[in-house]
Amino acid sequence: MNVSFFFEVLIGGMLSGVMYALVALGFVLIFKSSGVFNFAQGAMVLFSALTFVRLLEMQVLFWLALGITLVVMILLAITIERIVLRPLINQPLIILFMATIGLNFFLEGLAQGVWDNQVHGLDLGINDVPFEGLQQATGILVSTFDLIAALIAGALVLGLSLFFYKTRIGRALRAVSDDHQAALSVGIPLHHIWGITWAAAGVVAFVAGMLWGTRLGVQFSLSLITLKALPVLILGGFNSIPGAIVGALIIGASEKLAEVYLSRFLGSGIEHFFAYLLAMVFLIFRPYGLFGDEIIERV
Amino acid sequence: MVYRESGQFKTTYADDMAMFPIAQDRWGVMVTITMAVVVVPLVASNYWISSLLIPFLIFALAALGLNLLTGYAGQLSLGHAGFMGVGAYAAYNLATRIPDMPLLLSFFGAGLITTGVGILFGLPSLRIKGFYLAVATLAAQFIIEWAFSSIGWFSGGSATMTLDTPPMVIFGYRIQTPRQRYYLTLGIVMLLTLLAKNMVRSQVGRAWMAIRDMDVAAAAMGIRPLTTKLLAFAMSSFYAGVAGALYAFVFLTSVDITAFELDRSFRLLFMVIIGGLGSILGSFLGAAFIVLLPVLINNAATLFVGTVPTDLIANVELMIFGGLIIVFLIVEPYGLARLWHTTKEKLRLWPFPH
Q: pTM value?
């Protein structure tokens, strides 16, 4: 076995894992502050990326398009909170989960109905070429694009962690995630808090949409990356921001390694389920993920 | 006034254990069965039978299976379309590989094989709970999809993805026309519904409900979580397997893994939720709703708008489907079965105010 090839696969896998983490972060944000498992995150990614790319194609300036999309995503988040979530407060979580699946269908239809269902190229001006410095030093090929994506993801995680742990709103968010009723009783405005979280998740979805859209082209399959992010989530724990990153690194790396080293025994296509299998094995030993909050049950 | 239990006394133990203790319920069920067996085949056209009623019955069966697991035993599963696929492929392989295999036996065998697969994927439920379990059951869905599309043995080594099912013969009697298919489906569905109804009102069902409401407390009361949860997975996947076999043999007349994709799992879950968690009647109502909804949307579109571009209608259909589900969950989160329940409560007094 070639060692430098192994590391190339490992690093490439970890970096592609970071791309999963971008999607997973959106899930964690919403789960952490409302306990809702938001299946529509992938559709939000698709919606934001399509909006952005269509605006660019209409010759709107880059920064203006960016701004408009951000505003659209925030408005969308507020609308969702008002129309879908507010009437469903105090319902069982499975009902909320099903509502987000309904939302997922709705947003997929809306995104493609308003815009279209063609594949759009998106160019952020970052080239998908090997990073030269690393190539000269060690001979390992790593995509510059992946590195920049990883940096953006890192910045997002850092920013969100600071937001959650250092600001007043962040503290309110954590209070809400601990106990809705207790938070309400000390005067935290639950509706505002949820609006803010969904808006933040919308922005994260937009960032993920831009990066994934550059990588795959902006098209329907963007909404399916939800399914790639789910194993990351259960591996890291539903309510842990660092968990999303660590889970994503593990999933990304082992998925690529399995594809390279195992697929000759199992045949092609194992990347569709390998991550799930891995996450399931982890779960058997740690039922709440690596960093998720353990729920202590009392009779 | 019309529907009430006063004056109906239970004088024997058999009366006390009756499935439908109230005479009006018994009449209602009789009428429904008569309608399904006699009236519907006489009235309905071939189109109605083969493209609406048969899928409705099959999905009702699958939803019933999922309801046993999710509604009664409280374990969320997103892999049920996969289990249906296992049933379809198992029935196909049993019917084609074993010479002179009776059709019903191969359906039953398909159910048993799916039961095995279901128990296997149910094992994590002992450690994992809630949404973690839901995502873990997604693993079942993906592994099953992968296995059938890339391991050639399951599809008889043929290169094509779609396999035609062998002709259906029961006791030398060939089943071909829509009506014959309808009767075959109806028979199996009625039998399994009866079984489910009896399961949920016996010790098994009570154990499931105890586990659903709180598994720690149930364990403390002497209900074994291991056997109870696995039994729920086993029964549920048996139903899914039979439904899958029926879907492939009776409805599609072909076996194709694309018919059992993740989207189907979600739709099954919608049927259960919209129909009503923990309700047998709800499984049927939910299946009717989800099967009929796309047809209604399509017809309404052609009726009011005329011809619309197909890709637009697909998107609008997605939007309406998603939107209606959200509206439905907001208006009646406990499902159509709860609606029926409140109607029954009102019927006790109607038409008098008190």
A: 0.88
Please say if the pLDDT value at position A178 is more than 90: no
Inspect the interface and report whether the beta carbons of B325 and A97 lie closer than 8 Å.
no
A277: nearest CA in chain B?
B139
3-state helix, strand, coil in chain A (%, to 5): 75, 0, 20
Please indicate, yes or no, if residue A293 is contained in any of the structural domains: no
Q: What is the mean pLDDT of residues A30-41?
A: 83
CB A299 within 8 A of CB B210: no
Q: How many CA atoms lie within 13 A of A3 on its CB side?
A: 1
CATH architecture observed for domain B44-349: Orthogonal Bundle (1.10)
ipTM for this prediction: 0.83
The answer to whether residue A294 is domain-embedded is no
Q: What is the pLDDT of residues B5-55, one digit of tens each?
A: 778 888 888 888 888 888 888 898 999 999 999 998 888 888 889 889 999
Domain count, chain A: 1
Whether residue A213 contacts residue A123, with contact meaning beta carbons closer than 8 Å, is answered with no
The boundaries of the domain holding residue A234 are 3-285
Q: How many CB pairs under 8 A join A and B?
A: 145
